[in-house]
Design goal:
The chain is of the alpha/beta class. It has 7 helices and 15 strands. The chain folds into 2 domains: 118 residues, Nucleoside phosphorylase domain (Rossmann fold, 3-Layer(aba) Sandwich), CATH 3.40.50.1580; 187 residues, Nucleoside phosphorylase domain (Rossmann fold, 3-Layer(aba) Sandwich), CATH 3.40.50.1580. The strands form 2 sheets. Strands 8-13-12-9-14 form a 5-stranded mixed beta barrel. Strand 14 and strand 15 form a beta hairpin. It comes from Allomyces macrogynus (strain ATCC 38327) (Allomyces javanicus var. macrogynus).
Amino acid sequence: MGLHAMTNANFPVDAEGHTYHVGVKPGEVANRIITVGDPARAILIGSYLDGGNVIDATNFKKYLNYVSKDIVIKTSPRLFTTVTGRYKGVPVSIVAIGMGVPMMDFFVREVRAVVQGPLHIIRFGSCGSLGRARAGDMIVATDSMACSRNYNYFHNDEDQELSETDFAELMVKGEGPYTVSTTCPADAELTDALVAALHAHVPTGVEVHKGLDITADSFYSSQARQDPAFRDQNAHLFTYLTEAYPTAECLQMESFGLLHLAKSARPLPSGSKSIRTAACAMVFAHRVQNTWVDPALVEALQAKASFAILDAVIAVEIDAKELHPEEGSVWAKN
């Protein structure tokens, strides 16, 4: 697909109002949103929307651009996939964004620009457990912090691994190989609705845990994966994080970006909070125990959790006067 002519270099949109990366315009995204990484998961959840039973989610590539009387799916040139329809009569969107905080930033800012009224956003992803949760459990973030590679630390050519004591001392000073942020809270009401819905839906034997999420800027170095090809200085990162932050439950790559932008968003003209957020993740690996989830369990858990998250995202009310207008939207009733 070719490059569209854009206006406004500060916040690019095309002549029809489509944003540059997510590729959506007003009326294509609802106030209630589930965000995921994988477009296959977005289309799976889309198949649970009203009228979505005609979608064969096992052949998701067929539906990357799709229109029915109930559901609209579009995939932008930058490969953001947006699914919009209704769930139990309530307008809902599911947006697949890929991986990492930069992708979350594109999504949150561009969706905020095209939707009138409050946004309620729940992230549904995968993570590595640091604590109580086993591979195959669910973790809900009560709050989140960022763990990022300190690029300045690596500008010298030294290649001697730090001792555990030296690593911890440098980290406390803010001079270590990695930096950590202060925490951002998830929305309490949306989080409570999410926890309740997960308890009601997840398969027997799956536990739902709550705690601190740590969002890393890399799948590798800042999640303490050992790679002999690079000077990462992360041999003691697990120990430092678990001792310094005892409520930490998981490592993943997106939730802090979502919670941080919600906290940073200015109130709406009405005075209402602009963005309310919650986040949960399936545990694919226990990083300390070095175990991996059974793929068969993921399929069943993903389906059950999807229904839970759909129930949660419509559970917290939005004043009808503040919702994005239905007229002209893709979810407008015929």
